[in-house]
Predict the 3D structure of the following.
Amino acid sequence: MQQTNNYAPMFQNIRTMFYLLTPNESSYSHEDEVPQYVQQATPCFISLILLELLVGWLRTGGLITSLNDEVTSVSAGMVSRLPQLFVRGLELSSYVYFWDNYRIVELPWDSAWTWWLAFFGVDFCYYWVHRCAHELNILWAAHQVHHSSENYNLSTALRQSVTQQCASWVFYLPMALAIPPSVFAVHVQFNLLYQFWIHTELVQDLGILELVLNTPSHHRVHHGRNPYCIDKNYGGVLIIWDRIFGTFAQENEPVVYGLVYPVRSFDILLVQFDYYRYLWQRFWRAQGIKYKLSVIFKGPSWKPGLPRLGNRLEAPKVFEKGARHNPEWPLPLKVYVFLHFLLVLKAFDDVLAAKMILNQWTVLLMTGYILFTLTSLGYIIDQRSNSYKIETLRCAVLMILQMQGFTKPVAATLNVFIEVFISLSLLYWVMQFLTQLMDGKRKQN
C-alpha cells in the first residue's frame, strides 16, 4: 500500500500531461490553492525527452536531434520563465483583477459544468491567441521564438518566448466575467501541458482522434514552412476550431520545420529578441503612418500591394531536411557545454523551487547568472570569435557563486568534483584568453 502512495503523485503528473485529471481531482476554491502543475511536470518533461531520444535511436540508429538545438530550446524555456521569479504570471494576475472588478455572474468553482466550460473556453481563447500571434506582426515577434527550431521534437515544445504573455492575457479576459480564477488557473496550465507531447515525429496517425484532438500530425503541419503549412492548425487541445474557422490542413507531404527565414544562430538573446530589431527597422523604413501601422498590425509577410497576410507563394524555396543549420563543432566542446548546461539547469530549478524564501537580491543575482550562462554557452555553440572572453568571465563568476554557496550540487558527494570541473574550466579559458592576447600583440608588432 505504501508503494502505491509513493507512486501516486508520479502517475498524477503523467495524467496531467495528457489532460486526464477529473474535475474532482482538479477543482479548487481559490487560485492560490492551485498546484504549480507546469513546475511539477519537470521530471515528466525530462523523462519523455529521454524516452523520445531512446526510441528515435532504436528506430533510426542515430540521434534524432542535435545538442545545439536541444540546449537552445531548453534555454528558451528557462528564459521564458525567469519573470516568474519576481511576479505572478500576467495571464493569471490580469484575470484575477478582471474577475474581482467586472464579473457578471459567479459560476460555482466545484461544479463539473464549470470545469468543462473552462476546458472549452480556455482552448477557444487559445486558438485566437495563437492565430493572432501568427497574423499580427507585433505578436509574431514573440511567438516566432517557438518556431525558430529547424527540428521537431519534445524539446521544441519548451522553446517559448519571454514576451508572449505581454499580449496573450487579453484574450482570456472574457472568461473572467463568469468563470472563477481558480478554475481558469487549472485549465490554462493543463492546456499548455497537453501541447508538450504533440511535438514529436515519432507518433503518427491516431485514427478517429485526429478528427477532434490536436495531434502530433496536425501540429507538425503547424510547425512547417512548406507553403501548405503556413498559418494552419492553431488549436491547442482541440482541432475543431481550425475545422470551423477554415485554418485546418492535413499532413500530406514531408514537413520542413522552422521559420521561413531561419535564425541560424543558437544565441538565446538573438533568438528571443532579434525579430524586434528587424521589426523596428521595417517600421522605421516604411513610408507614412498607414504603412508603418501595417508593418506592426498585418502579417509578417505583408508588403505594400499584398493581402493582409502576404503571399505564401513568395516564401523562399523549401529545401530537404538535410539543409538544417547544424554546424560541426568539436566533441570536447560539446561535452563541456552539456556539463555546464546541466549545472545552470540545476541552479535554475533550485531558484525556482526556493523563490519564496530567497531574498530579492539573491534571486536577482541568480537570474543574472542564469541569463549570462545561457548567453555564453550560445556564443560557444555559435563559435563566435569573442566567446572566450565572455566564458572566462562567466567561469570566474560561477566559481565565486560556488564558493559563496549560491549554487548547490545534486548531492554533497559531488561537490568536490564540481569544484574541480569549474576550476579546470576557468583555467582553460584563462589560457585561451592569454593566448589570444599574445597572438594579438604579435600581429601588431
Remarks:
- The longest helix spans residues 415-444.
- The two ends are 78 Å apart (CA to CA).
- The mean pLDDT is 92.
- The CA atoms of residues 302 and 310 lie 4 Å apart.
